[in-house]
Amino acid sequence: MKIYLVGGAVRDKLLNRPIKESDYVVVGSTPDELLALGYQQVGSDFPVFLHPETKDEYALARTERKSGQGYTGFICDFTPDVTLEEDLIRRDLTVNAMAEDEGGNIIDPFNGQADLEQKCLRHVSDAFCEDPLRILRVARFAARYHYLGFTIAPETKQLMQEMVAQGEINTLTKERIWLEIEKSLADGAINVFTDVLAEINALPVILPPLANHWSPDYSQEIATLLTRVAGENQLIIAFCLWLKEIQPTEVKTLSERLRLPNAYVDALSLFTTFAPIFTHNQAPVEQVLALFNQADVWRRPERLNLFIETFALLGEEHSALARKLQSAATKTTAIDVQAIIKQGFKGAEIKQQLARAREQAIAGIFE
């Protein structure tokens, strides 16, 4: 039995990037042998195990044979005679098809180190086209390593385009598409991810609303905005900025298409509805109140705070208006309902007086 560090950990180690997780391939072993050593099996389609102490993933070396459409249609062979090279050749990119043995020696049968030096993302073999998920993975890697100058090899981009034309990308599940998008948001270059999808004609399939207006100029605008994003809400903020031009009516369709988390849907719906309205240093009182009501600032102030934080990143003028919105929110939420009741108002009158008091508070700032 031989054990090798593989994939992203080897790649990022050679790039002097932080290693987020370590994955291993085990050659010449069986599930029974690993179970006897205390490993915990977690894979169902093929044997993947967790190390009894480190909890790192250890997978038996395997080969794959296409048995159907999509990224799940494979038959795996993980017998002890599967070699390391046979396992590596099934991987997506040459830079991900390297291994390191227990002595620290790099095994690189497909010239991944050379492609790292040339900053090139190149597919390993024709088996690449058997898994449509790799289209999104390559787009994500292009985004992640864009700051280092990485680009996709022309022949790989051509292959991706052919896969899109053949309809393979249509077999991807909503969850897998969203996972790749979310990872690209975390990497901070979702515009590059989108550029790649646009270049290979995948954007109309994956994100139809965005395909209508994506362009090199818009991509650069998003890239500039993303440099301003920080803080604990940076993924949701980047998401809203990325999709800021879509129509509010398209948010629900997009949510269903990608099965978006509720926090993203709420934030995007609020942003696409109201951000286009507040284009100057003034805002209609009724629209500000509508924003507060839709955000439910009275019970969930964090939703309005997220809108304000995102809106302020659009520019200096927006930042000035965002400060006014924050002041208005502070004043309106401080209005005492009990004081209105003590004035003798009852039933529907209370709601009317409360709305009037909130409008007056907003008007004091915006008029």
What is shown here, in short?
The chain is α+β, with helices and mostly antiparallel strands. It folds into 3 domains: 1-131, 2-Layer Sandwich (Beta Polymerase, domain 2), CATH 3.30.460.10; 132-246, no CATH class; 277-367, no CATH class. The chain contains 19 helices and 11 strands.
Question: Key features?
Answer:
RNA repair, single chain, 367 residues, 19 helices, NT_sf, seven-stranded mixed beta sheet, two-stranded antiparallel ribbon, alpha+beta, 10% strand, CCA-adding enzyme, Beta Polymerase, domain 2
Would you give an account of this structure?
Pfam families: PolyA_pol, PolyA_pol_RNAbd. It comes from Pseudoalteromonas spongiae. Its EC number is 2.7.7.72. Residues 149-211 form the tRNA nucleotidyltransferase/poly(A) polymerase RNA and SrmB- binding domain. With 367 residues, the chain is of the alpha+beta class. It folds into three domains: 1-131, 2-Layer Sandwich (Beta Polymerase, domain 2); 132-246, no CATH class; 277-367, no CATH class. It contains 19 helices and eleven strands. It has helices spanning 8-14, 31-36, 84-88, 112-117, 133-144, 154-165, 174-187, 190-199, 203-206, 208-211, 216-226, 234-242, 248-258, 262-274, 285-295, 301-312, 316-333, 337-342, 348-366, and strands at residues 2-6, 23-27, 40-41, 48-50, 57-60, 63-66, 74-77, 99-100, 106-107, 120-121, 151-152. It has a seven-stranded mixed beta sheet with strand order 3-4-5-2-1-8-9. It has a two-stranded antiparallel sheet with strand order 6-7. The chain is elongated and about 85 Å long.
